[in-house]
Amino acid sequence: MYIILSMFVLTLGTVFIPFFSFFAMCVMPVPVVWMYMRATWRETAALAIGAVILTVYWGGSYGGTVETGFFCLSGMIMGFGLRKRRSFFHCWGSGFIVLCAMAAVLAIRLYVVQGVTVFTYVQQFVILWGERLTAMATAQGMGEADKVALQTQLQSLWHTVPYMVPSLLVEIFSLSAWITLRLAIFQLHRQGQKAVSFLPVRCWDMGRGMVYLYIVSLVLKYWGTTRSWIWVQWTGENLLQIAFFFICVQGISFLFSFLQARKKSVVFQGLVLLLFFCIPFFSYIVFVLGLADLLFSYRRNKAVL
């Protein structure tokens, strides 16, 4: 019963609470996974279809309806993987691919119906919010020098943010799939059900392929910049951002294993995450640690784990 109730609340939030809608969609696969582990796939599909129907009935947009459907589908696929005792990486990858397919469907629909690319749409959205921010600053009596500096920063965002959407979505969807599995496995273990064991963050290894991806992205960015190939440049920028993200994950994993080997409290791990998200300079330190760990396999050679 609590599964149906939680699904109802999340669907309600996606339609009527703007600031809660995206968070609710990211969490929506969790009750679907719980349902799949407790019931048949037909009952799970009925739960997902019910959420989609409620979204349409309550006046949800086309995009919101598609997002609800795909997030529920990702939950079903991850639940299927857990039920078949597939590896954590397999379940995470399946959910991640479904969410990427959702983004592709929405982007294609936007281009076919409205005739604009997702990059143009995001740029228009950023410009709109930039104009609102400028108007608010003007109303509060901002000086001319500060206003010029703000305009310069906003123009930089107008030209940068839209083309970084792919890498941003990859990071968001990977985190969404990971959070879904983490919550689902935690609840299943509490209920005494069998599920794949959750690999601790300190044991994660992104693989040396991330180093190669980082090098390729730097080459693409250099070629695009020096030869004025815009799409090559932004492809390199996106790949660079993705590689940077996963190498930072490697760095966090290294720090967690280092702290674990020295019997440090979990509080120190929370402090690492706090510093990573709040202090930009610390993220570069984590990146360097992750890159060094990938290149020299420090944890394997020194038996830090």
| Shape by Cα distribution | globular
Rg calculated over all Cα atoms: 22 Å
Main sheet overview: none
The number of E-state strands comes to 0
Order of helix and strand elements from N to C terminus: HHHHHHHHHHHHHH
The stretches of 5 or more residues where confidence is low (pLDDT under 50) are none
Helix content: over 70%
Our measurement of the CA-to-CA distance between the termini, rounded to an integer number of angstroms, reads 41 Å
What is the helix tally? 14
User: By helix and strand content, what is the structural category?
Assistant: mainly alpha
Give the overall average pLDDT: 79
Count of all domains: 3
Proportion of strand residues: under 5%
Describe this structure in words.
The chain has about 300 residues and is mainly α. The protein has 3 domains: about 1-115 and about 165-190; about 120-160; about 200-300, no CATH class. The chain is about 80% helix and about 0% strand. The protein contains 14 helices and no strands. It has helices at about 1-15, 20-25, 30-40, 40-55, 60-85, 90-115, 120-140, 145-160, 165-190, 210-225, 230-260, 265-280, 280-295, 300. The longest helix has about 30 residues, at about 230-260. The mean pLDDT is about 80. It comes from Megasphaera lornae. It holds the Pfam family DUF2232. Keywords: Membrane, Transmembrane, Transmembrane helix.
